Amino acid sequence: MGKKILVIGAGIGGLTAASLLAKNGDAVTLLEASSELGGCAGKFKRHKFLFPAGATLGMGLEAGGIHERVFRFLEAPLPIEPLDHVMEMVHPEATYQFLKDRKLHVDGIAAHFPEYDKQIRSFYQEIQQTAAVVRTLMGPLPALPPSTPKEWAYLVAAVRPVHVKLLPFLNQTLGHRLAHHGLAQLHPFRHMLDGLLIDSMQTGSEDVSYLLAATALDIYHEGAFYVPGGLYRFAEVMADSLAANNGVLKKRRTVLKLEKSESGWHAIDHRGNGYEADAVVFNAPIQMLPQMLQPELMKQLKKPLAEGIQSETWTTLTLYIAVDESKLAEPLPLFRQISTGGGMAEGGHFFMSSSHAEDRLRAPEGFRTVTVSTHSEARHWDDKEKYKSTRRTLTAKMLSAIEEQIPGFQNAIVHLEKGAPKAWERFTGRPNGYVGGFPQTLDSALFNSISHRSGISGLYLCGDHIFPGGGTIGAAASGIHAARSIAGKRLV
């Protein structure tokens, strides 16, 4: 009989840890406060329409990708559709096409800036070479920052002579490398990069860790996918595997207290039910830990985690739209970024994902569902009047920008609702509607990340606040680290 494991939160990180440990033979109980799985990668239905909670595309599903490795270990393949044309990036000065083929992609970008052709090609060559070296570490997937002798040994064993090439870049930002290539003042080019980075790294080219930025900018070329239905399918596949391996999943169970004893852990949910465990995987927002843990346990948390609990991240306004295709002059692109030139937040930049015309999981024939999301600062939502005003202003701003690109779009809308921070707080349990994890700056990335080890024996963490960061790939990787530490072996 394996260990008795309690997982709190059925987001992608928690489901990854739970399904891997159940497959490993451990007795896993997973508690989810919501009636839906997947957290920020979940879904909801309105009438005949299904909406993914977040506007995003499928990554990490290529051979050897993080999600592909998990699903292969679980023996649970997932239907996907690879994309050769990843997305359109609409900016004030031009519309760029993000293509899977690296050469065609660079050719297309360089064509917009002929006077900088040599510099842009040199920059992308370095990006591709750096990302290729970083990917050699994705196989062993060492945990950062290493917290135990075993993790240090695993990291050292994963390092090869080729990784010496990464050392000069360890404390550099993407901004440093743009300056090196003579591109620091090419603002339209940087703005295009910022649009890509804000969605994946939660910050722009000036401050983002170069090693992570290189990986993020290049990963689309490894494989980007349309997942029929949406990324909530990740959650369903892992939940099915959990059940098949005798794990227990309980929805609508909010954990109120988490206590440690000599024999292990004891949790109490809002219904008064108690749960005993040898170890706990915490996939709820880290800001909730002070409500659950006793003060003496809070004092044992590692310093980066304790500081992270007190820190703000982005909030978002998300629009959920269903449109009548017959009223559109042209089919909607599956994925599109739109930047108006007004910065990377507050509706100046947003990501728009549409259902495939043949995706009957999301909409009936003749209709498409669309999810649109922009970054926003929490200070714009901190009182009732500001909340209403910000929601109204950002909605109008994004709809106007879409209408400019897709004439007749607003007339085609048959359903529209708004997911403002309070809605995210209500449906995903995230305090203040914080989403996306911390910006991947030098101060919070790689060796400065928050470890999956909390500092308290038997309490592990996963999710977008934990190394390696946001997105489904980052959440899944943190779940893998938690599962490995509990199982005492690699698993995937």
CATH class of the largest domain: Alpha Beta
Q: Looking across the biggest beta sheet, what order are the strands in?
A: 8-7-16-17-18-15-19
Q: Average pLDDT, to the nearest integer?
A: 96
Beta-strand percentage range: 15-25%
Please, what is the oligomeric state?
A: single chain
| Uncertain regions spanning at least 5 consecutive residues | none
Total of DSSP H or I helical runs spanning 4+ residues? 16
Largest sheet, in brief, is: 7 strands, mixed
CATH superfamily of the largest domain: FAD/NAD(P)-binding domain
The rough form would be described as: globular
Q: What would the CATH topology of the largest domain be?
A: FAD/NAD(P)-binding domain
Count of folded domains: 3
Q: Structural class, judged by helices and strands?
A: alpha/beta
Radius of gyration, taken over Cα atoms and rounded to an integer in Å: 22 Å
Share of helical residues: 25-40%
Q: Distance N terminus to C terminus?
A: 21 Å
Number of strands: 20
CATH architecture of the largest domain: 3-Layer(bba) Sandwich
Domain Amine oxidase: 12-486
GO biological process, one term: carotenoid metabolic process
InterPro entries: Amino_oxidase, CrtISO-like, FAD/NAD-bd_sf
Protein name: C-3',4' desaturase CrtD
